[in-house]
Amino acid sequence: MDVGLILAMMAEHAAEAEHGSPIVGMIARLVNFAILAGTLVYFLRSPIARHLGDRGTQIRSDLVRAAGMRTSAAAQLVAVEQKMAALPGELDALRKSGAEEAAAEEARIRQIAEAERARLVEQARREIESRLMLAERELVARTADLAVGIAAKRVKAAITAEDQARLVDQYLGQLAAAPAAGGRVTA
Length: 187
Fold this sequence. Notes:
Number of helices: 3
Radius of gyration: 67 Å
Structural class: mainly alpha
Oligomer: single chain
Low-confidence stretches: none
Largest sheet: none
Order of helices and strands: HHH
Strand content: under 5%
Helix content: over 70%
């Protein structure tokens, strides 16, 4: 029989029962509900069973995946805890390395500064020596100029006009004798 036909007959029967006694109406409603529930079970049993099976499979796979994620998270937590435990040692190593690098840099800077100081001292020494030599030359030249000046004053003061005339005559006599002696004039 056709389900639609059965449902139509039941609806007609229920309508007739409603006009009768309340107990008959209640029974008719229960029968209608039972037929509706039976029809739903008959037609929906396979899709619901398939859906529930699929859902059960999905829940199992989700549980397996969650267990795997939990294991992975636990392993990551252990790795992070190990890293955290090693962190103070790494920090100490970094501090020590930084202190060593700072000491090495300080020594390098000190060495560069010492080399620069030595270079500047040597440069200053050479400049002082060159200025000293220049000053000595100037002093010798000045001393010679002063000595010549003093000697010239003494000669001017000591030589009279007669001495000067006698020296000129003597020089002129040497000049006249020079061509006979091979062109040399001796003082």
